[in-house]
Amino acid sequence: MSGLALKSGNPIRKNPFPTWPVFGAEERIALLEVFESGKWWYGERVDEFERKFAAFQDTRFGITCTSGTAGLRAALTALRVGAGDEVIVPPYSFIATASAVLEVNAIPVFADVDLETANIDPGAVEKKITSRTKAVIPVHFAGLPCDLDSLAKIAGTNKIKLLEDACHSWGSKWDGRGTGSIGECGVFSFQMSKNMTSGEGGIVLTNEPELADRIRSFTNCGRVANKPWYEHHSLGTNLRMTELQAALLLGQLSRLAGQTERRQENAAYLEDRLREVPGIRVPRKHAKVTRRAYHLFLFRYIEEEWDGVQKARFIEALTAEGIPCSPGYPYPLYRNPLFLKWGRGPEGCPLTCPYYGKEIDYAAVSCPAAERLCREAVWLPHELLLAEKKDMGDIVNAIVKIRNNVRELK
After folding, report:
1. Domain ranges in the chain?
2. What pTM was computed for the model?
3. Which of 204, 266, 320, 368 would suit a FRET pair with 35, their CA atoms being 20 to 30 Å apart?
4. How many CB atoms lie within 10 A of CB 308?
5. The predicted structure's pLDDT at residue 346
6. 196 closest CA partner among 172, 229, 226, 225
7. How far is CA 350 from CA 277, 333, 338, 342, 410, in A?
8. Among the CATH numbers 3.40.640.10, 3.30.365.10, 3.40.50.170, 3.40.50.1970, which is that of 25-252?
9. What stretch of H or E contains 162?
């Protein structure tokens, strides 16, 4: 294999990979039934999906909402996290993990990740706990479950809440239990890029009846069960899912188990092969991960072992070989302007500031593992893992081809 496609050589792959979303008769029939019924709003389909998805994740109760972001806010509100409280979050995540904390007037505190998993490091969590800590939000990044045994023990010992950000982990299991079922509650997203989607949407799962009621009340304008419709018992908002979205999600759920198994099989092949490539690192998996969703396939590109060729150049070359990929997050969450301007003028100080009672300078935060991960991570989208096993060979061959011809990139 020689002659990089980036240098006018022939690409390893010319055929397209599977596209996303995957849909079929299940969604078409269900959507048409809802459409023709004239009952498009928050009814039987929503209830059916909530029950089925909760059961799929080994949890008692599911409360749908408009997005994963909304679900995090609803969960934090129901857990009674509020003004001046601290919530420990990882810096390698989508902004919603931290911004939802700000929305309830609490303070995000960043604990570093484990470089080998991209998930929050339980040891780093312990070091960040103070008398103000109310909760910790582990993110099952790329569908890989966090060390939930260690995190649950830390949460229990310190009497803080464990809220799972499971927005990448539909179908993942820790020690035989679905993600989202181990903490007080777990939140999932159904946004367009996710492994099951209704365009937008989310759900909060919990095993606690009273907590489920509080979440439901918050997402349904403060209403409570068995009370008059125009009687509002708490400060809530409208985060309700539609019947049309639920119809889509029931179709998506019907094929999720099979898709998860295929992604696992193809990812296992990639991991085994890529471990052999110098300068490529694949994540470590805990022995208690009994099933894993792959929202994306992450590997680390070690620039020093590629003759100093920068990651951006490698990604350019891999894309030219016909392999879709991306560099992932450019920097940790605390390097976003939202946090860098914290406390600097009215835009940089949400309602939280007066209640916290002390200064916090996010510009001074340093999480070395997360910063390194931002420099080294390469993401492959999850739909690639729905291709055939032979297609995984193209991914490996493209990376090996670039490795063998790395000097062409200088």
Report:
1. 25-252
2. 0.96
3. 204
4. 11
5. 55
6. 172
7. 47, 17, 10, 8, 46
8. 3.40.640.10
9. strand 161-165
- Pairing, β 289-291 against β 185-189: unpaired
Residue 352 confidence (pLDDT)? 60
The predicted pLDDT at position 361 comes to 86
Rounded Cα distance between 361 and 340, Å, is 8
List residues with catalytic annotation. 94, 165, 168, 191, 194, 223, 230, 240
Under 8 Å between Cβ of 179 and 186: yes
State whether residue 186 is helix, strand or coil.
Answer: strand
The token pair that represents 214 in the structure block: 């509080």
The per-residue pLDDT for range 331-373, each reduced to its tens digit, is 999 999 989 887 555 555 555 666 777 778 899 999 999 999 9
Extract the tokens encoding 164.
């799972």
Q: Is 98 helix (H, G, I), strand (E, B) or coil?
A: helix
Our measurement of the distance from residue 326's CA atom to the centroid of its chain's CA atoms, rounded to an integer in Å, reads: 16
Q: How confident is the model at residue 255 (pLDDT cuts 50, 70, 90)?
A: very high
- My answer on whether omega of the bond before 21 falls inside 30° of 0, hence cis, is yes
In 3D space, the residue among 282, 245, 233 whose CA is nearest the CA of residue 380 turns out to be 282
Nearest of 331, 340, 336 to residue 367 by alpha carbon: 331
Spatial contact of 266 and 381, defined as CB atoms under 8 Å apart: no
